[in-house]
Amino acid sequence: MPHGRADEERLVADMIELARQYGRYGYRRIAAFLRHAGWEANDKRVERVWRREGL
Predict the structure, then answer these.
(1) 10-33 pLDDT per residue, tens
(2) Which residues form the HTH-like domain (predicted)?
(3) pLDDT band for position 35 (50/70/90)?
């Protein structure tokens, strides 16, 4: 299970891929997808990265 700040780049890559795949979904739905895929990512962390990446 990937978790922690060391996997930040992979998390961002996965988020961008999901955002591209599901264009209209917001950060909460993407966060749910990430958790389902095994990421330990809460909504706040996903939102922070989401805004930083301009998604």
Answers:
(1) 889 999 999 999 888 989 999 999
(2) 7-55
(3) very high
pTM above threshold 0.90: no
54 occurs within a structural domain: yes
Rounded Cα–Cα distance for residues 2 and 25 (Å): 23
* Cα angle, residue 18 at apex, residues 8 and 35 outer, rounded to 5°: 60
Kindly provide the b/e burial profile for residues 29-55, where b requires at least 16 CB atoms within 10 angstroms of the residue's own CB. ebbebbeeeebebeeebbbebbeeeeb
Report CA 8 to chain centroid distance, whole Å: 10
Q: Could you tell me if 47 and 27 are in contact, meaning their C-beta atoms sit under 8 angstroms apart?
A: yes
Residue 46 lies in a domain: yes
